[in-house]
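Morning, I've got a small favour to ask if you have a moment. I've been staring at a protein lately and its backbone has me curious. You're getting the sequence in one-letter code plus the fold written as tokens. I've dropped the whole record in just underneath, so have a look:
=====
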Amino acid sequence: MTHSLNRLTPAFTENNIPIVFAVDRNYVFYLAVTIKSILANASAANNYDIIILEEELSEEEKQLLSSVLQGKRHVSLRFLNMRSCLNEYQNSFYLRSYFTKAIYYRLFIAELLPDFDKILYLDSDLIVEKDVAELFRMDLKDCYLAAGHEWVCLKPFFYWYLKGTLGIRNPIDYFISSQLLMNLKKIREDSFIRLFAEKIKSNQKFIAPDQDILNLVCGENICYLPPEWNVCWHWNFCFRPHFPRKYRNVEKEYKEVQKNPALIHYASDKKPWNSPQLKLAERWWFYAEQLPFIDKIRIKALEDRFLFWQAKYDTVRYILPAGLETFLRIPFDFFRYTLFGFLRTVFHRVSGK
């Protein structure tokens, strides 16, 4: 079932596993892959209540996401439009090219879903390899949320950003906000929505706004996810050749859980659709290939790959001698505009669009 409502209550009366996403139009196809991975590993004994926070999705895009359910009666998919929900904060959101308003939605889920005491929040650039019900049923005790370590905090620059700029006493405790088991009841009881809003309105130039705010407000009282539910592929290329020596045990544990991960988060600007040659990308494509609109995903991935390399090219072009920059620009523009334009034309003709 698919609905768009202003106030949502649990979709099922028994074994309801609420999973919340926040998405904009650029990530619709990629969210479809995430949902496909969840359903591929779901148990028929559970009911999965998928809620998508959005602001601009078309009916066609909603139908595309709904089609992933393939008539599964133990799965519900609903949309909550955010256009009028956060009006008082709109001018306070710190936005950049890769920061959109959607990243802030998770901060207000406790207020947006007052009839839910506990939910699982997931980003749209990840896949799930085991039943998410296992994660949802993790005992939160009296914690505000459960999250995974963000081991990029071990890099010297980020470590001192956390300690010096954010004032986090122990940067090693810093967590990632891509997969969160949230205790909405406790967050409401302790009025943390107000604290989240105050941090947003402080207009501080956070490196990772939603993540930094959650760490600042909830960091003293969280649980950590089991390592297999927190496999982040960017650690593979953030630490070269190794983790800092005193944390080699972390590196060893991480390499071990990569062999049988429960969840893989494709963090950083590198994604399986723009960097398919990287380790673990093949797992994302495994689920993408199972979708009936895989051709559209390939075209979208190709476009985003060009944009990714455009950004990389623009970063280095200013330090290149003028002659060399011009020489490199010729083949780049051919692939970016001529070849890609040709492929798009072929796709639209074949698909009849």
User: Anything to note?
Assistant: Residues 1-5 have pLDDT under 50 and may be disordered. DSSP finds 13 helices and eleven strands in the chain. Residues 322-351 form the longest helix (30 residues).
